[in-house]
Design a protein that fits this description.
The chain is α/β, with parallel strands linked by helices. 48% of the residues lie in helices and 13% in strands. Helix 7 links the parallel strand 3 and strand 4. It is globular and about 70 Å long.
């Protein structure tokens, strides 16, 4: 018998036991209300697994979404935001951008007909400068949002054509463009501007601030992800590529969050 299958016979039961114990510990503590995940490592995963074509590479990451939603629903986590495509990503090769967009579109369309999504009443929304997305991608966004518009379960937010600095700029513009302020002089608008006022004009103002931010693939930076909402977040970085992200990796991130003492600047 080859060594790898033999080793798996011993490792798999230990792995399952460890995951069960970790799950028990996580369930006993307070869950984060809102988790943000930077989905990094798709291309490196594709290279190491000999995937050809950018659509196949990004589809491998999109397929992980179903598992993630099941984990969140099982743990009773109210909201999760996933960064699927940044404004800077548009600077990549056209074939990569189109491949990523097709993967996003296919996943959004599958959500419309996913029985688990409807059973759990997952509410899907997409935030960012959506006007930058291809028409077909915007259509898929609108279809997924329409299919889940009346649901009040897990809040699934997809950040696409998204940049944290752009969101803050757009929030200030939205604040200034409010009907009651359009005719104000700049000095009056500036004097009335507060942090709460900006927060009310973010892309998804009803979402709570992020409790936990997870970034996969070993990169240790935010890269502009939800800059406003992550001011007091806890951060967890893992070397695992996003398409290979497992339940045990998710549980480890939550356990690390639960073990920290949050100070909120105090």
């Amino acid at each position: 018998m080859p060594w790898t299958p033999l080793l798996r016979l011993f490792v798999t039961p230990i792995y399952r036991l460890y995951q069960a114990r970790l799950l028990h510990k996580v369930r006993a503590e307070t869950m984060p209300r809102h988790i943000g995940i930077i989905l990094d490592g798709n291309r490196r995963y594709g290279l190491s697994n000999h995937l050809t074509g950018f659509e196949a590479i990004y589809a491998s990451g999109a397929d992980r979404l179903d598992d993630l939603l099941a984990w969140c629903i099982d743990l009773g986590i109210p909201a999760v935001t996933l960064w699927v495509f940044s404004t800077e990503n548009f600077d990549r090769a056209p074939e990569e951008v189109s491949g990523a967009m097709r993967a996003v579109e296919n996943k959004l369309r599958s959500l419309c007909n996913n029985e688990d999504i409807h059973r759990a009443q997952v509410h899907v929304r997409t935030v960012g400068r959506l006007e930058l997305l291809p028409h077909s991608t915007r259509a898929a966004v609108q279809a997924a949002e329409a299919a889940t518009r009346d649901y009040h379960g897990l809040e699934l937010t997809l950040a696409a054509a998204y940049g944290g600095r752009e969101e803050i700029v757009d929030a200030v513009k939205s604040y200034l463009d409010a009907p009651e302020r359009r005719d104000w002089p700049a000095s009056k608008a500036a004097a009335a501007l507060t942090a709460d006022a900006i927060a009310e004009h973010l892309y998804a103002p009803n979402l709570p601030d992020l409790d936990l931010v997870i970034r996969t693939s070993g990169e240790i930076r935010l890269s502009g992800f939800l800059l406003w909402q992550s001011a007091y977040s806890e951060f967890y970085f893992t070397d695992v590529f996003w398409p290979a992200f497992r339940r045990i990796d998710f549980l480890r991130a939550i356990r690390a969050y639960q073990q920290r003492k949050r100070r909120f600047g105090h």
